[in-house]
Each structure stands twice: as C-alpha cells, then as structure tokens.
Amino acid sequence: MKKQGLFITLEGGEGAGKSTLLDVIADVLRKSGNTVLVTREPGGTKTGEKLREILLDKTNTKITDDTELLVIFAARSQHLSEVIIPTLKQGHIVLCDRFTDASYAYQGAGRGIETNRIKVLEDWVQQGLTPDLTLLFDIDVETGLRRAGRRGESDRFEQEKLDFFEKVRQCYLQRASSETERFKIIHAGRSLEEVKQQVLTILQEHDLC
Ligand code: TMP
After folding, report:
1. Could you identify the atom of ligand 1 that is nearest to the CA of residue 157?
2. Does the Cβ of 106 fall within 6 Å of ligand 1?
3. Which pairing describes strands 133-138 and 93-97: parallel, antiparallel, or unpaired?
4. Ligand 1: residue whose CA is nearest its atom 6
5. CB 140 within 8 A of CB 168
6. Does any ligand 1 atom lie closer than 6 A to the CB of residue 43?
7. Which atom belonging to ligand 1 lies closest to the Cα atom of 72?
8. Beta 133-138 vs 6-12: how paired, if at all?
9. Cis ω on the peptide bond leading into residue 42 (within 30° of 0)?
10. Residue to probe by mutation, ligand 1, list 77, 106, 158, most atoms within 8 Å of CB
11. pTM of this structure
C-alpha cells in the first residue's frame, strides 16, 4: 500500500553512513510510487544552508552553546515553514537527514544544555509536529570517527573529542529505547549490503515498499 504524508528522519553519530543510505531509501520509496522530498538539517532552505555554513565553520571558535542551539532551531523553523510542512500537506514523504533528536544528542548530551531548554524550543518551533519514523544509524564511536576521518577535513562538530561523541551516541540510544514505536535502530557497523537489508526490512514492515 502506498503511504503518504509521512515524515521520516535519519539520525546517527559521525561516520554512521546515513547519508549514503539516504539515497538508497529515497530510491526504494520512489520506485514504490511515493513522491519523496530529500532534505537535511541544519539546512534544507536557502536561509538554512547559510546558517549551516556558520554552524559548521570551524573558524567560528566563539560561538556559544546557546547561540549554536538557537541558530539550529532558527534554521529548523525556516525549514518547517518553507519546506517540511507544505510537503507533508501535499501528502508526500519528507526524508530528512537529521532533525531534533540531533539537538538533544549534540547540544543536550554533547554540549550539556539542559533537556528542558531544548524542549521549550522544540514545542515553540514544531508545535507538535514530530517525525513518524526515525532510523537511528548506530555505530561504535571509534569506528564511526575513523570512517568520517577518511572523508577529509573535519568541520566544527567533527573536531570534538571521543567523549563528546560517546555522550551523543548514548543519548540517541536512550531516546530510541524510550520511543520504540518511532525509532528503529540500524546496526551501521556492518557491511553496506547488511545495512541496506536492515533498512529494507524496516521499510517493508512499515508497508513502504
Ligand atoms: P551532518 O554531518 O549529518 O550533515 O550534520 C552536520 C552536523 O550538525 C553534525 O555534526 C551534527 C550537527 N547537528 C547538531 O549538532 N544539532 C542538530 O540539531 C543537527 C540537526 C545537526
């Protein structure tokens, strides 16, 4: 059965391979007759992509943790109004590389910002809109960082220490265990074929292909 108006997000630490799988997922969903919009955060709009540049630029050494969080939610607000909500209203699938779970993981667990402050922004900006399905690409931190390192120069987040990414990973896993209906965990350390198979199984279980 063709499903419509669905908000799917992909999450995970560095080097988990979610961006590679994004194209595979979009392809599978389209072949099953769905209209799919692929987008990402931070970014997804002209304004959001400019804000992304600021966030990822490692020469921006003075950005405070609060500024970082607020800029991320500013980009998210624009993304929701300009792209996500209109696309869902048209009955299409939105496939988004990262969303608010990343703010809890990176800004909350990683930077140490209190969860309830993030929740205030989430409620303000999203007004109840949350993903229908979240695929969490989980990989052990060292393997992920090694893989990400192969991609070349690191950005402002990738420069963080091992401990930061351990906290990010644990936060994602904890969120996944507290929302088992929405979250599906992909064991991303396995071979590409095995990872693809895990994803396909989940899409089939959700009647999406
Ligand atoms: P990407 O590498 O998956 O494209 O994501 C860019 C970086 O942005 C990544 O290191 C995680 C970070 N990020 C946050 O810190 N908080 C957020 O809410 C989002 C969406 C991304």
Report:
1. 10
2. yes
3. unpaired
4. 42
5. no
6. no
7. 18
8. parallel
9. yes
10. 106
11. 0.97
**Looking at ligand 1, which residue's alpha carbon is closest to its atom 7?**
157
Distance 42 CA to ligand 1 centre (A): 6
Per-residue pLDDT of the chain (209 residues; tens, 9 = 90+): 344 599 999 999 999 999 999 999 999 999 999 999 999 999 999 999 999 999 999 999 999 999 999 999 999 999 999 999 999 999 999 999 999 999 999 999 999 999 999 999 999 999 999 999 999 999 999 999 999 887 778 899 999 999 999 999 999 999 999 999 999 999 999 999 999 999 999 999 999 99
- What is the DSSP secondary-structure string of 93-135? EEEEE--HHHIIIIIIIIT---HHHHHHHHHHHHTT---SEEE
Take residue 86 and report the two structure tokens written for it: 């209109």
Q: Is-contact 19 75, C-beta < 8 A?
A: no
